[in-house]
Amino acid sequence: MKDRMIIFAIVTTIIGFMVAIQFKTTKEPVIRDTRDILQLQQDLRIEKERQQELNQEIEKTVFITKSATGKRKLRRCNDRCIKWLKGTSRVDPS
């Protein structure tokens, strides 16, 4: 009798966890992008400009590494790029 009670407790616990996981996965709402076409175009334009600026910084870095005093200049350029990226990041980490 005691063995049956233990098995019953284990089975109901497992079923309880399965039900809890099922409710958790179905309760999270679907987040939709509700921006209109103009907002999407504007965001796309801003991201393209950002990409151009990053490409220019990469080209500068490549040029600097080829110069004689490239190591010092490269370090300064990388620091500026990192500061710029931290200041202009528009992407949510979540």
List keywords for this structure.
94 residues, mainly alpha, 80% helix
Description:
The chain is mainly α and 94 residues long. The chain has two domains: 1-30; 37-94. It is 80% helix and 0% strand. The chain is built from three helices and no strands. The longest helix has 30 residues, at 37-66. It is elongated. The chain starts with a helix and ends in a 6-residue tail after the last helix. The mean pLDDT is 78.
Count up the domains: 2
**C-alpha termini separation:** 51 Å
- Using only C-alpha atoms, the radius of gyration works out to 27 Å
Number of helices: 3
Return the average pLDDT rounded to an integer: 78
The low-confidence parts are none
Beta-strand level of the residues, as a percent range? under 5%
Q: Tell me, what's the shape?
A: elongated
Structural category: mainly alpha
Q: What order do the helices and strands follow?
A: HHH
Quick one: how many beta strands? 0
Helix content: over 70%
The major sheet is characterized as:
none
What topology emerges from the helices and strands here?
Layout: H1 2-27, H2 37-66, H3 70-88
Could you give a short description of this structure?
The protein is mostly helical and 94 residues long. It has 3 helices and no strands.
